[in-house]
Write a structure and sequence with these properties.
The chain has three domains: 50 residues, Orthogonal Bundle (Multidrug-efflux Transporter Regulator, Chain: A, Domain 2), CATH 1.10.1660; 80 residues, Methionine synthase domain (Methyltransferase, Methionine Synthase (B12-binding Domains), Chain A, domain 1, Orthogonal Bundle), CATH 1.10.1240; 101 residues, Rossmann fold (3-Layer(aba) Sandwich), CATH 3.40.50.280. Helix content is 56%, strand content 12%. It has eleven helices and seven strands. The strands form two sheets. It has a four-stranded parallel beta sheet, sandwiched between helices. The protein has a three-stranded antiparallel beta sheet with strand order 1-3-2. Helix 8 links the parallel strand 4 and strand 5. Helix 4 packs antiparallel against helix 5. It is globular. The protein binds cobalamin. Cobalamin binds next to helix 6, helix 7, helix 8, strand 6 and strand 7. The site of cobalamin has 36 residues, from helix 6, helix 7, helix 8, strand 6 and strand 7.
Length: 259
């Protein structure tokens, strides 16, 4: 007789057992390295799969992908290049990591986002000028432009990404668009400062499987929530997110919203 107890672990518990960060376990699920089943919007992993992966990790393999320590080091160099306005160095570092096989979302999250957060803090505290922040942002925009790849394989569906009127932060919307494309979504990137009714109109005009509203300027959060309710009522699955969350959250939310 089959046991009624589901012994499977959620992703956080599996990560703890494997001794890795949640995001690493999530990446393994996404890449198929760790087999998991999506149940009610959560990944569940059987203990046998955890033992299997644990064993295989103990067997050394080549070639090595860029490791976390390497990406951390790259983030430090990226910060220096961005603050100095050294676009050539910043671009070379990003290209180098992608050619070594670093997943695009890891590159953004671990190498580009930490320097931008630091630059944002320093700008806020008056330690960096506005022009230095603008220059760094513009360099990252161009790096992301190069990463805006079109992956092969079956599309998950069509997504639209925007930030609403009053939120001028385009860069997080670009990051969201690049991340979704790397996860096989076809993406319409409508950028920032978009009137909410325009997003509603877009979703009524196109066949959209997912609307993503990015919020960076917190004043716009209420409008984003209200627009999400309207979009969902009109039949478009919609997720809202931004500062304080990551692209890993975005991709997980996108999958859950459209299961
Ligand atoms: C660059 C920047 C600007 C540029 C934007 C240029 C551009 N082209 O984007 C400019 C100069 C326009 C700007 C203006 C302002 N800014 Co500004 N800006 C920044 C800065 C330095 C980086 C922003 C950025 O690109 N972040 C991207 C990444 C690095 O950050 P992130 O928010 O964590 O992004 C993640 C999420 O967005 C997530 N994500 C994206 N989409 C989605 C969707 C879902 C569903 C999920 C789950 C996740 C997700 O993915 C991203 C990567 O992890 C930040 C500092 C910071 N800490 O971010 C301040 C910051 C965002 N700005 C801030 C402020 C206050 C302002 C101004 C009000 C300043 C002023 N006094 O004029 C104006 C507001 C303008 C407006 N009306 O929007 C504050 C926001 C505070 C708040 N709570 O609202 C910050 C945090 C700086 C600070 N420490 O005070 N800014």
């Amino acid at each position: 007789m089959e046991s009624a107890v589901d012994e499977r672990l959620d992703l956080q518990s599996a990560a703890t057992q494997l001794g890795v960060h949640y995001q690493t376990a999530y990446r393994w699920v996404r890449s198929g390295r760790l087999r998991a089943e999506m149940v009610d919007g959560r990944y569940l992993i059987s203990p046998a799969e955890i033992i299997k992966l644990d064993k295989s990790r103990r067997t050394p393999k080549t070639p090595p992908a860029p490791r976390v320590a390497r990406l951390d080091h790259a983030a430090e160099r990226m910060y220096e290049a961005l603050v100095a306005g050294n676009e050539a160095a910043a671009t070379k570092a990003a290209r180098g990591l992608t050619s070594e096989g670093a997943p695009i979302v890891d590159l953004i999250e671990q190498v580009l986002v930490p320097p931008l957060h630091q630059i944002g803090r320093q700008w806020h505290d008056g330690e960096l000028s506005i022009w230095a922040e603008h220059r760094a942002t513009a360099i990252v925009e161009r790096i992301l432009g190069e990463l805006a790849l079109n992956p092969r394989g079956r599309r998950r569906g069509t997504a639209v990404v925007a930030a609403l009127s009053g939120d001028f932060h385009t860069l997080p919307t670009t990051m969201a668009a690049v991340a979704l494309r790397s996860d096989n979504w076809q993406v319409h990137h409508l950028s920032a400062d978009l009137p909410p009714e325009q997003l509603l109109d877009f979703c009524a005009t196109y066949e959209v499987d997912l609307a993503v509203i990015t919020v960076t300027h917190s004043d716009v959060q209420p409008a984003a929530n209200a627009t999400a309710v309207k979009l969902r009522t009109a039949g478009t699955p919609t997720i809202v997110g931004g500062s304080g969350q990551t692209l890993y959250d975005l991709l997980e939310g996108a999958r859950s919203a459209t299961v």
